Amino acid sequence: MEQKSVERTVAARTYLDFEKPIAELESKVLELRGLEGDTVSISDELRKLEQKAKTALVDMYAKLSPWQKAQVARHQDRPHCLDYIEQLIEEFTPLAGDRYFAEDQAIVGGLGRFRGRSVMVIGHEKGGPDTESRIRHNFGMAMPEGYRKAVRLMEMADKFGMPVITLVDTAGAYPGISAEERGQAEAIARSTDCCLALGVPIISVVIGEGGSGGAVAIASANRILMLEHSIYTVASPEAAASILWRDANKRIDAATNMKITAQDLEALGVIDVIVREPTGGAHRDPKLAIEIAGEAIAKALAEFDGKPPAEIRRQRHDRFLSIGRTL
Q1: For a surface tag, which of 53, 56, 246, 323 has the fewest beta carbons within 10 Å of its beta carbon?
Q2: Per-residue b/e over 135-158, b at no fewer than 16 CB within 10 Å?
Q3: Where are the domains of the chain?
């Protein structure tokens, strides 16, 4: 029964373009499993091929290029904000609306318990796996009301002394005319300012894409964690290529030069912790990926236990003011 389940998982897996060699090996593994029976013993060959596929996957993911990491960060099967909330947060109670204009489902938020501790959780939700869900959540691109909702929830958390956990996964704030008419830039600025003013710890995790001000608006935190194969950018590689070279096909060059990976950003002091992903990316084992992220969040929160609001606020300010000073 377990083997059939694994076979169904592999058969339904979505492979990225650069993963074609892995797809071929895993396809051959499936073929051999189908041939194995009472009269045919090919267990040795099967074991060797499985090991070869595993080794190839480990080697490939150990040396991904920045553009390949961008593809992994956007993988359709990568766990989203609501997946993290479902697995990590007990008694989650969603809170909706900005009390000014409307509800924005690109940003979800609410109260819950993280390992027995009351917290406020806020994050970008891209939606999925169906198109209807993605449209409902606007592909994780928040409107001004989404950021104003985030401010409302962060201020509530501050009032009641609850730590804030934010889960970042957006290509950027929605750039449409309607968003601009309702003050997109002002809403992002106020959300960023609110993050910096909190007297409670705020821990941010980039779980997929961290796109521009749309990400910073809820990621101006005491500790910024980043999944191993996620990206954090001032603009998408495609957008940067269009601006710099007037050619979106230069996206690979843009991704390489922009230093968008967790490894680059840790070296620059922009983020604090790289969270390990399962071999082959979080999309291969979402449950384990979320479990590992949960451990990292708990460790980051523990650093601020017993610290007064003024010290928590000062640490956050100093953290951002120090970026670039040692370069």
Answers
A1: 246
A2: eebbbbbbbbbbbbbbbbbbeebb
A3: 2-63, 70-321
82, 125 Cβ separation under 8 angstroms: yes
pLDDT in tens, 285-316: 999 999 999 999 999 999 999 999 999 999 99
Q: Annotate 103-152 with three-state secondary structure.
A: CCCCEEEEEEEECCEEEEEEEECCCCCCHHHHHHCHHHCCCHHHHHHHHH
Encode pLDDT of 217-241 as tens digits.
999 999 999 999 999 999 889 999 9
CA distances, 103 to each of 17, 59, 146, 267 (Å):
37, 44, 7, 38
Residue 124 identity (one-letter amino acid): H
Q: Is the peptide bond preceding residue 129 cis, with omega within 30 degrees of 0?
A: yes
Q: How far is CA 137 from the centre of its chain?
A: 16
Q: 238 CB contacts (<8 Å, ≥6 apart)?
A: 248, 251, 254
Mean pLDDT, the chain, integer? 91
